[in-house]
Amino acid sequence: MTDMWSTVAAERGALADDLAGLTDDQWATKSLCQNWSVAQTVAHMTSTGTLTPGGFFGAFLRSGFSFDKFANAQIAKHVGADRSETLANFRAIQGSTTSPPGPKLSWLGEAIVHAEDVRRPLGITHTYDAEAVRQVADFYKGSNALIGTKSRIAGLALKATDTDWAHGEGAAVEGPMISLLMAMTGRVSATAELTGPGASRLGGS
User: pLDDT, tens digit, for every residue of 72-85?
Assistant: First the structure.
């Protein structure tokens, strides 16, 4: 997993650099993740880099086994008193290989998908490592855990137009790999960047 964690660190660092010049209003912008702001999403990413399996289970128990309560408590812990502190907290975990329990590729997925959750509403573009995005898509395509990707893409033939990646059979959906990944993980706005008869189905319409 050395290469994976190197990629995670690189993506965290790149996102931190993008965040450095943001205003308070930009930090308060709604991200693509649930109802969280940019600041809250970044704090959520920070929590991932600080939680050990034991720490996760203890915090989850204290939340009454409610994922929403657990996640919101972790955000409150890491969000910082102002944007500078929130960013400093995030930079502090850039090279961390600590993580909650779960498949290791899910943390690469978080580093890429949540970074896009933050960047897209702010109009910030970033070029991700193509192989890393493919690995994350391959991880999510067979899983329904938490975000339901496997069910969401059932009956669709997904094909990337900018790299060698395809999956599934059925109504065609084509577009950039990062757009496919975002749509696969439930970011409906990303379907506007996709074409094919299956694109509207992936968007939930």
Answer: 999 999 999 999 99
- Spell out the domains of the chain, with CATH numbers in brackets: 2-122 (no CATH), 133-202 (3.30.1050)
pTM of the complete model beyond 0.85: yes
Q: How far apart are CA 29 and CA 200, in angstroms?
A: 26
Write out the chain in H/E/C secondary structure.
Answer: CHHHHHHHHHHHHHHHHHHCCCCHHHHCCECCCCCCEHHHHHHHHHHHCCCCHHHHHHHHHHCCCCHHHHHHHHHHHHCCCCHHHHHHHHHHCCCCCCCCCCCCHHHHHHHHHHHHHHHHHHCCCCCCCHHHHHHHHHHHHCCCCCCCHHHHCCCEEEEECCCCCEECCCEEEEECHHHHHHHHCCCHHHHHHCECCCHHHHCCC
The sign one gets for the Cα dihedral 109, 115, 119, 125 is negative
The neighbour count for residue 71, using CB atoms within 10 Å, is: 19
Q: Which of 197, 192, 150 is nearest to 170 (CA)?
A: 197
> 205 falls in which pLDDT band (50, 70, 90)?
very low
Q: How far apart are CA 58 and CA 40, in angstroms?
A: 21
Instruction: Give the span between the Cα atoms of 11 and 131, in whole angstroms.
Output: 13
